[in-house]
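tokens incoming
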């Protein structure tokens, strides 16, 4: 009851806690989650999460970002940016418990949920059907070109699904956005690059850094 009262009043009370980082215990300030958001054991330390109801359907990347920024009970949130494969897996397991379709069989819809990473440098083909040139391939396959969408100096960690990610598509699809697809399929552990107009479900993260800083909405 006390915790619910704190959340309802949106009072930011700093609690001292500890987390394990690389086998060592380090202190971290934890701010309680607001609204309907919650911590995920094993998720990104200090982050709070919520999920758009599955019955509302899927969204392209831009509308998913808008949903998290504007429609999430007035709580500042973004698309999630897990830092390790373990954090992404815990987040995926939590999303499945919230109703995210498991997508195990080959014929299942591969949709999962969007992540908050993005390649700012475009690499389009000049015309559909054009040859996949070495210059285009060099951009699409460069892991170092992916960053957090809303903190553009923070590079995406290597949480890709396979060594051939990103940039495995050689056609007109310039896959600049990132998602977790086929959530419960054990052969799809990690992130994939996607064209930003594709449709995925929406998970939102309220990161600790944003709540501590009283962050303002970034440009859409």
């Amino acid at each position: 009851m006390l915790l619910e009262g704190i959340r309802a009043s949106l009072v930011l009370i700093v609690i001292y806690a500890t987390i394990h980082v690389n086998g060592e215990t380090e202190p971290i300030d934890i701010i309680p989650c607001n609204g309907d958001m919650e911590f995920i054991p094993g998720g990104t330390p200090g982050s709070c999460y919520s999920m758009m109801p599955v019955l509302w359907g899927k969204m392209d990347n831009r509308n998913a970002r808008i949903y998290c920024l504007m429609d999430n009970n007035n709580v500042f949130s973004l698309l999630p940016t897990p830092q390790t494969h373990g954090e992404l897996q815990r987040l995926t397991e939590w999303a499945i418990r919230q109703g995210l379709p498991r997508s195990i069989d080959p014929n299942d819809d591969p949709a999962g949920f969007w992540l908050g990473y993005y390649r700012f440098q475009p690499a389009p083909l000049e015309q559909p059907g054009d040859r996949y040139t070495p210059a285009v391939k060099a951009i699409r396959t460069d892991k170092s070109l992916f960053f957090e969408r809303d903190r553009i100096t923070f590079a995406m960690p290597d949480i890709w699904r396979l060594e051939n990610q990103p940039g495995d598509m050689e056609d007109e699809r310039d896959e600049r956005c990132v998602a977790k697809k086929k959530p419960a399929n054990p052969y799809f552990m990690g992130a994939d690059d996607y064209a930003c107009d594709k449709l995925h479900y929406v998970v939102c993260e309220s990161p600790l850094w944003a709540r501590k800083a009283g962050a303002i909405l970034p440009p859409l």
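note: The chain has a mean pLDDT of 81.
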